[in-house]
What we know:
Chain A is of the alpha/beta class. Chain A has helices at 35-39, 97-100, 119-128, 141-150, 204-225, 228-245, 257-263, 267-280, 299-323, 389-399; strands at residues 52-59, 82-84, 91-93, 106-112, 159-163, 168-171, 184-188, 285-291, 330-335, 339-340, 352-353, 357-363, 371-372, 374-375, 382-384, 407-408, 415-416. The model of chain A is unreliable at 11-48 (pLDDT under 50). Chain B has one domain: 7 Propeller (Methylamine Dehydrogenase, Chain H). By secondary structure, chain B is an all-beta fold.
Amino acid sequence: MADAHYACRTAAHRSTRRGFLGSAALGAAGVFGAGGVSAASAAGTLTKAGKRVMVIFLSGGSSQLETWDPKPGTDTGGPFRAIPTSVPGVHVSELLPHTAKQMHRLALVRGINTAEDEHGRGATIMLTGRRPEPGIEYPHIGAVAAKLLGGESQELPGHIHVLPGGGGGFSKQDAAFLGPRFASVWLGGGQAPENVLRPGGLTDDADARREALRKKLNDRFAASRKSAATEAYAESFDQAERVFRRAEVFAVEKEPAALADRYGRHDFGRHLLLARRLLEAGVPFVRVTHSNFDTHHENFDFHLEQVAEFDRPFATLLDDLADRGMLQSTLVVVMSEFGRTPRINHLYGRDHWSKAWSVALGGAGIKGGAVVGKTNANGTAVTDREVNGGHLFHTYLRAVGLNPTKNFYPADRPVPIADPKAAAIDEVLA
Amino acid sequence: MSAPQVRPDGVWKVGKPLIGCRFDPSGRFLFASAEDHMVRRLDLRTGGVVGFTGHASWVRGMAFVPHGRPVGRSANEPPPGLLAAGSGLSQSAAPRPEPFTVVTGDYHGRLLWWRGDLPAPQFVWSAEAHAGWVRAVAVSPDGSVVASCGNDHLVKLWRAADGSPLRTLAGHDCHVYNLAFHPAGDRLASCDLKGIVKDWDWRAGRLVRDLDAKPLHKYDTGFRADIGGARGMAFDGAGWRLAVAGITNVSNAFAGIGNPLVITLDWATGKPTQLKPKEAFEGTAWGVGFLPSGAVVAAGARSGGRLWVWAGDDPASAAVVNVPSDGRDLALSPAGDRAAVACWDGTVYFFSLAVTAAAPSPRPVAAR
């Protein structure tokens, strides 16, 4: 898996990549079993049409000191400067010159302590808002957003993950008990799902007859052996059919050349532009993974390269969303699985560090220019307004007008949408 | 040519993680830069330490402009003896040092000129030299020109006499990691991230040719990032060979897993020769230099430090010495009888290099 390439050689993040059509039949997993699909019925009143969420996941763990919480001139600060931003008094790393001009649209949470330095578990905390627990898997923010923002009549998949590398697939794990309808569809390398266009030799009529036969056989089978798995299988075909009708949404090359230039003619720029197209087309959740930040060695050289690749496309994305009137309805979150050690190691690297790091948010429901939480002088500890992944998860949902204290009801049992031990970070909410 | 006897020969405990080190042209001082942005000077005669405060970022480039004499000392001039560095011991009868200017370059793109020999540092002037890091600084053999290189893909030349800009050499398409003047004085070599060595006729501002040190670069498809560059670079005294040092065979860029490599380029033909540690060692070669005998010395690290020496035609190192911490730079004394390795643990480790063979074998061409 492309975004599971870690310098420390952990095997985390290994969700199964399956064919877009072939794997959904495996259905929902977790303690709620097959009943999860049909019983995942959060109150319909939660749905907020028009709101969207975008997560930019800096895979491997980006350094908070080289991004959102620089500490120049200290023993941990490294070689880079802090630069002023469009918000007086707020500084970020010099590696973010374009983003610095967008700070009035962003809020920073600088007091994160997720207390988990392993890639996979760290990502789980950040994407589910809960610490991993035995016996239950919670849905990722993407699945929750797809269900609560996209509803049941979504044409395109509600939960899309654009990531580097080739291939594509479907990750049922990240929907947990919400079921495969809300699982992420992976667009490896930003490519459209395979075979998204009908083969040239297949006429409309032939295609319709082929589909009718498939449905007939499927219905006959389901009549005697209907299960969550057969429902999921049928749903995957229905969803694929809907995607096929909207294939043009994946055609990034249809964007104006000047705009594509501003995003950048590299994978990450292209992926952000694709994400904007998907959001604009009504997809309620898109995650774009930027790889890789697991810089145990030569952290500064590699952050120079990777953050520079992030900076301009991200700033362009914010401008583009604002220009299209989408920013107020789109929550944009920049996260990692953790930050990096303030202490610089013997390889000029920084290692995993979850005790004091940062996330940036912008757009829907976010108070631009807010900075919440504080770390000490050299960034080794949170000194003010410590929060964890649960607080952030609440905040994401509140920002798009959802009530995170409501429940899902898989198998008719209440499961809080967000960790009831945490609450939203009100200071960053508009 | 035989390998010198390498023996530990003192330490200088700075106490801050170190980045670079250089001997001044007389060999009287060792300068070391650290992660606290300071450049410190150790008087090897007296043990006295002086701090040069003025940079606001890391300093890796350091070079010296002698006043009134060319760069490099004559081989028959005895170097000062090394006392217990940093021990506070002093020699009251220590002679006044020869005057020189030290030029230091930092990761904010600034060059600072200092009088390097005075009891207290005396700032002379500065230049906003590069957009991004200054990665290396060198001084022409006649002491008239300072060259710098950096992340703006440029090599820049400065008049040593007043720090004014002289010329910009453009042609690299990525970060320029290192540079060195040819001993004959008319050529300058620079090496970039991708292992492209450019041979410049710097007086004319003309690129003469590209040389190949590409084994020192890799685009790691797993991490989607480039790793490479010349972490050390030096000509031999006669100008027959150029050595560039770095990392090769990278299997995991973000963990630094690869092998140290020194490539020597025959300056006349451009033919590369790869020099590798005899031992199986993972890491990076962070500095390289030539001894008067022609032997090549390099320092490097990943899990612990090493000093390697190659002599004769054997591409495998003839001598390997453990360095107690991760070496981040290597300096050879002007007489070639001493090495200093600046380490992550905040210590400079000195090694004596007892040379047992003298002259290099004769070669027909000094420089193209």
